[in-house]
Specification:
This protein is an alpha+beta fold. It has twelve helices and 13 strands.
Length: 426
């Protein structure tokens, strides 16, 4: 007899706190048997739909918009100062509501409802301020549930609305989903992490931290696609002594005819090192005017150099050089770039262009993307069955161990030994 669904659910809930340790121990066994060495981690991410209603979205912009409108309306009605904060307005509304409630209690006013009954002014005021108070509390609760995200689902608060590749109506609309990260090595899945970020850019640092905490100094190389490229990620990997094999975002387009013929790009201008300036096609100089510091949420700071030409009015190349939507007739050309980021990018480009880098990229495309192919296509697991981040990560780790067991069994049956590593054909 098949076990009841509550028995399966109870078993899953018992495993939630233990799955990270189980996966790590399994990988340690693979290392002992020389199936995995963790020298290179092949990282990739995918979005998986949450078990939540697709139309229970709450958007940060909408909540803040209606919250601000309600605040302005109450400031006007209660004659509050224009510089009153949201907390002060909410406190005043609560005080007014409490005063009216006490008044109704003292006067022993009996509330009436339905047709044929006339409400007293006290009852009307009570209901009005109670409604306003509830709205303020709901807005605060929405923002609290949202955290730093821009959206969340009412039926699964941990789910964020993300644009998926396809949906049930095949129109690519937003769905409540999670960004699942996986790391592979030797054709085995060695790490899983769940994220609420809509893209992979902000997931690399916490994921690598998780992998280093589990496996320590065994990790030497990080191989990922262009979605992970940023100055912050490059600097983090360099600080940890890890070699980055990250495909630059402009890798496919930098040698195209359109980019090579774009006279407005910095790469196509002459650089004067002694003057620290660029010369455009018209022979005019873009001088370095300032340095702009870009601060990331993690505290990392990146310096961007800003170059400006103030003599673009009437230039015959201005329409080709300056492509500004805000100002159709600009009088100056500006460009900015980060020298630190360019240094990291060039180093990563050199890494992936080497023979070792070509093989690392080949393994990433087969192992990292192949892992998600097994999950979504092989196991038909393209939507979560449980709610909450911890439960979803636990489910993905159990699936990862199942795939690893299947892979290990296949290697034993085929008498395969050593670490699986793919190489480009000669």
């Amino acid at each position: 007899k098949a076990p009841d669904h509550t028995t399966i659910c109870r078993f899953q809930n018992m495993l939630n706190a233990h799955t990270p340790g189980l996966l790590t121990q399994f990988v340690e066994l693979l290392i002992e048997d020389e199936h995995v060495d963790l020298k290179s981690l092949y990282i990739d991410g995918t979005k998986m739909e949450a078990v939540a209603n697709r139309y229970t979205f709450v958007w940060r912009k909408a909540v803040e918009k209606y919250q601000g409108k309600l605040k302005d309306r109450m400031m006007k009605e209660l004659n509050l100062p224009k510089d009153s904060t949201l907390k002060e307005v909410m406190a005043t509304v609560c005080k007014r509501f409490n005063d009216i409630r006490n008044t109704c209690s003292k006067l022993k006013i009996e509330f009436v409802y339905g047709s044929g009954h006339r409400k007293t002014q006290e009852q009307r005021d009570y209901e009005y301020y109670n409604d306003v108070k509830q709205k303020f509390e709901n807005y605060e609760q929405h923002l609290k549930s949202m955290g730093r995200r821009n959206s969340y689902s009412k039926t699964d608060h941990d789910a964020t609305f993300m644009r998926m590749k396809d949906d049930h109506m095949r129109n690519g609309q937003l769905k409540p989903a999670y960004n699942i990260q996986m790391a592979s090595s030797g054709a085995f899945i060695v790490g899983v992490m769940g994220s609420q970020h809509t893209n992979d850019l902000h997931t690399l640092t916490p994921f690598v931290e998780q992998m280093l905490a589990a496996y320590g100094s065994r990790v030497k190389n990080i191989v990922a696609d262009a979605g992970y490229e940023s100055a912050e990620n490059y600097a983090y990997l360099a600080g940890k002594g890890l070699k980055a094999y990250i495909k630059p975002a402009n890798y496919e387009t930098k040698n195209t005819k359109r980019v090579r013929n774009d006279i407005g790009r910095r790469e196509n201008m002459q650089f004067l090192a002694d003057e620290d300036a660029y010369v455009c096609k018209a022979g005019k100089k873009l001088i370095r005017c300032k340095d702009r510091i870009k601060r990331f949420a993690s505290g990392f700071e990146d310096v961007n150099r800003v170059y400006i030409c103030f003599d673009c009015k009437g230039c015959q190349y201005s329409s080709q050089c300056i492509k500004s939507r805000k100002n159709p007739n600009p009088e100056k050309k500006s460009l900015s770039f980060s020298p630190g980021f360019e240094t990291f990018r060039n180093q990563s480009l050199e890494n992936i262009a080497s023979e070792e880098g070509i093989n690392e990229r080949l393994n990433r495309s087969i192992q990292a993307e192949g892992a998600f192919s097994k999950v979504k296509d092989g196991l038909a697991y393209d939507r979560f069955r449980r709610k909450g981040m911890k439960k979803k990560v636990a489910d993905m780790m159990m699936i990862a161990m199942a795939i690893n067991l299947n892979k290990l069994h296949s290697k034993i049956q085929n008498n395969q030994t050593g670490i699986i590593e793919y190489r480009k054909a000669a």
